[in-house]
Amino acid sequence: MPEPVLLKLGGSVLTRKGGSGEIRYDTLESVSREIGLRGAIPLLIVHGAGSCGHPEAHRYGLMQGLTGKNREGVMVTHRAVSRLNAALVDALTEQGISAVGIPPLASCYAESGRIRSMEWRNLREMMNRFLVPVLHGDVVMDGERGVTIVSGDQLVVYLAGVLGISRVGLATDVPGVLECGQVVPEITPESADRLCFNSSSSTDVTGGMEGKVQELVRLAREGVRSEIFHVSRLGAFLDGEPHGGTVVRAG
Amino acid sequence: MPEPVLLKLGGSVLTRKGGSGEIRYDTLESVSREIGLRGAIPLLIVHGAGSCGHPEAHRYGLMQGLTGKNREGVMVTHRAVSRLNAALVDALTEQGISAVGIPPLASCYAESGRIRSMEWRNLREMMNRFLVPVLHGDVVMDGERGVTIVSGDQLVVYLAGVLGISRVGLATDVPGVLECGQVVPEITPESADRLCFNSSSSTDVTGGMEGKVQELVRLAREGVRSEIFHVSRLGAFLDGEPHGGTVVRAG
Question: 10 Å Cβ neighbour count for A102?
C-alpha cells in the first residue's frame, strides 16, 4: 500500500480574495486532475475557507465565541465554507476520485480554541478503502467559548498526529515560506524563532503564513515533517520530487 | 433549564413511501412549527431516511458492506439522505430554530453494524447553547465491513446514553406500537418478548417497528424510558401531556 498523504489546500488557492466568496473553479479542476492522475493513494484532504467563510466569521466575531447576538453567524459561516467544500468534492468526483465531504462542525469539539476531541476512526477507515475524506477549516463548538474557528492548519496538525500520517503537504499561492523575497528551504523549531515575520520583509510573509508555520513547528516537534509549496508544484510533491518550497522538520 | 429532549422523526413521516425520494414539505413545516412554538428547549433531533436513502442503500447492498462494486453507493446514499436533512434544517430555521445539520458519516464510526465511537461533546455543547443538532440515519464507516447503515433508531439509543437524556420521543406515522390493531400502552423488556410481531397481526407491526422496539428495549434496560406516538401528537409529547401512544420502560 502506498504511503498515506495528508494534503492541505490553502483557502487563498481555492478562492479569490476580497469578499464575496468567489470560488476559483479552474483551480479546483486542475488540482483535482493532478490528484486523479496519481490513481489510488490513501489520501486525506483539508482545505482552508478563504473568502468562503473568513469574512463571515470576522463579521460575526466568531473567534471571540458565542454571544447573545451572533448565533446566526454559526450557520452563515458554516454554510459559506460548506459551499466551497461541496464544489471541491464535485471537482474531485469529476476526476474519478471517491471524495467524501466531512464537516468538522459535525465531528470535532474544541476548548479555548484548540481541538479537544474529534472522531477520526472513520477517516482512517476511508483512507484504507481509498475513499478520500475532504475536511476544511470550520466553526466548531467550544466548551469554553461556545464556538470557535478551527483553521485548516490546526486540523492538519491534529489529524497527522492521530492518524500517524508522515507525508504532509501544504499547497499555497506562494512558492514556500518567504524571507526577504526568497524561499526558506528548511525550517526547524529552532530556526523558526529567527524568521523575520515581523520585520521589514513582512510583506512577504502574511499573518496567515506565520500561523501556518507555528502549527507546522508543533508537528515537527512530534517528528512529522511537512512541506509547503506553490499549488502549481502539487504534482511534484505527490510524486516525491523537488518542488522548490519549504520543508519544516525537527532539528 | 428545561429538561433536554431527544426527538426522533420517522423517515415515513417525512417522506412518501415508494421510491423516488419525495419529501413531505407540509409535514416538515407543521413539525417545525410545533417545535418552534415551544420556544428554547435543549433539543436534539434525529430523523430517519425514509425514501431518501433506503432505496439507494438497498440498491447498492450497503448493509452487507463495501465491495469492489458499490463504492459509488456510499456517496449516492449519503447525498439522498443529506437532501432530506437540509430540507428539515431549512424548515426548522424558518420557524426561528437554530438548527444545525450533523451527518453521522462525518462524526460516527461503527464495527459490525453497531456504533463503536462518535463525537458527541459538540452535540452537548449545542444543546446547552440552544442550538439544535439534526442528525439522521446514514451510511457510516465500519471497521469490519467497510461501511454499514446506522439507523436513526440506533443513533437515538447511543446518543440518549452518552448524553444522559431521559426524555426520548419517537414521532411515527402510526399511533404507537400496535398489536391486533390496538395501541400497546406500555412495553417492558419482559413484555417485549410476548409481542406478536410475527403473528397474524403482523400487518399492524412493520419490520421497521420491530427493529425500533428492539432498540428502545436496549434503552429501557439502561433505565431510559421512551415514548412512541403519532406525529400529530408531537405537541402533546413536547408539553409532557398524554399522547395516546406507547411507553417503553424498564419493568
Answer: 27
Q: How far apart are CA A59 and CA A45, in angstroms?
A: 27
Task: Note the pLDDT tens digit of each residue in B20-59.
Answer: 789 999 999 999 999 999 988 999 999 999 999 999 999 9
Domains in chain A, number:
1
For CA atoms A98, A101, A143, B1, the dihedral sign is negative
CATH code assigned at A105: 3.40.1160.10
What is the complex's ipTM, to 2 decimals?
0.93
Question: What pLDDT, in 10s, does the model give residues A56-97?
Answer: 999 999 988 999 899 999 999 999 999 999 999 999 999 999
Q: Do B75 and A100 touch (CB under 8 A)?
A: yes
| Cα–Cα distance measured from residue A82 to residue A149, given in angstroms and rounded to the nearest whole number | 14
User: Which among A134, A164, A150, A136 has a CA at the least distance from the CA of A43?
Assistant: A134
Q: What is the DSSP letter of B108?
A: E
Chosen for mutation from A90, A125, A150, A163 (greatest number of chain B CBs closer than 10 Å) is A125
**Domain span including residue B17:** 5-248
Contact across the interface for B105 and A105, Cβ inside 8 Å:
no
Helices (H), chain A: 11-14, 25-37, 54-59, 71-94, 104-107, 121-128, 152-163, 189-192, 207-221, 234-238
Q: For chain B, give the longest Cα–Cα distance.
A: 51
| CA proximity to B7, closest of B165, B115, B138 | B165
Cell of A175: 512558492
